[in-house]
Each structure stands twice: as structure tokens, then as C-alpha cells.
Automatic annotation (TrEMBL):
Alphabetical list of Pfam families matching this protein: 4HBT_2
Protein known as: Acyl-ACP thioesterase
Hydrolase keyword on record: yes
InterPro entries: 4-hydroxybenzoyl-CoA_TE, HotDog_dom_sf
Record key words, sorted: Hydrolase
Organism per entry: Avibacterium gallinarum
Hydrolase keyword on record: yes
Length: 148
């Protein structure tokens, strides 16, 4: 039996699928889903109060090193969606699980996960743990749930 992941926090962002994200059948092109994951991740960082600008000012970056996506149902033109992200690791890397649902029905459309690592912006060297500023900001977030 697979152990349940600890969720440090969750965040939700709502969007409407615009025309420029769909194909001729009005189905969102598969590559655009990643943009919605990024927008939701940026919204979380804004809420935490430690954005990509702050990360860069501290001399670091957080590149994506792994992305997994499972398309369950297509997102359609003008459909209102909710991206729920669950942070399952934040100290040695940033691991986030995503679920995209139809806002009206709650039906699951897509599930995904990303892994980001901390790198020194000058050397490109991967760091073995998150920076102190990141941990402090993250642990002060209103929805943060530490391990028991």
C-alpha cells in the first residue's frame, strides 16, 4: 500500500480557457496546461510573499527538473477551471501535485506534478536544501501545515 503524501499547503486558482489556448475543435492544446500550472504556482508564491523576483534577488533559481501530466478529460474553450495545487515537499526541493477540475461540475480534467530544485544563479550549482529566506517565508504562510 502506498503511503499518503503529507501536504504542507494547498492553493487554488480559477481561470477561463481563452480562444488562443484551444485548437480548431475548441479543445485546449496539451502544451498549454503547463502554463496554467505555472500561473497557479506564481499565485501561490505571491500569497507566500516570496516570489520568483525575491528568489532571483537572493541569487537563486528554481528550475523545473521533472514534470508529469495525465490528461483525464479535455479542457474546452470558455470553460472555467480550477487549478488546485498541493505542496508535498518544500525543503530539499519543491514538489507540487496539481489537479485541474471543471469549476461548475468539479469533474477532474487533469492531474500533474512538478519537481523544482534550488540552483545558485551564478554557478548553476544545485543546492541540497532550500534557502533560509524561502523556508521562513513558506513556513509563515497562512495555510502551512508542518509535519506532526
Amino acid at each position: 500500500m502506498k503511503a499518503k503524501k503529507h501536504v504542507y499547503c494547498q492553493h487554488q486558482s480559477d481561470y477561463e480557457i481563452p480562444f488562443f489556448d484551444v485548437d480548431s475543435a475548441h479543445i485546449m492544446w496539451h502544451g498549454h496546461y503547463i502554463k496554467y500550472f505555472e500561473m497557479a504556482r506564481c499565485a501561490l508564491l505571491e500569497d507566500i510573499g516570496y516570489t520568483y523576483d525575491d528568489i532571483r534577488a537572493d541569487g537563486y533559481g528554481w528550475p523545473i527538473v521533472q514534470l508529469n501530466v495525465k490528461y483525464v478529460r479535455p479542457a474546452l474553450f470558455r470553460q472555467k477551471i480550477r487549478v488546485t495545487l498541493s505542496v508535498v515537499e518544500y525543503d530539499t526541493c519543491l514538489r507540487i501535485d496539481y489537479v485541474i477540475t471543471d469549476l461548475a461540475t468539479g469533474k477532474k480534467l487533469t492531474v500533474a506534478s512538478t519537481t523544482q530544485v534550488v540552483v545558485d544563479a551564478q554557478t548553476g550549482e544545485m543546492q541540497l536544501e532550500a534557502t533560509e529566506n524561502w523556508r521562513k517565508a513558506f513556513e509563515a504562510y497562512k495555510g502551512f501545515q508542518p509535519l506532526a
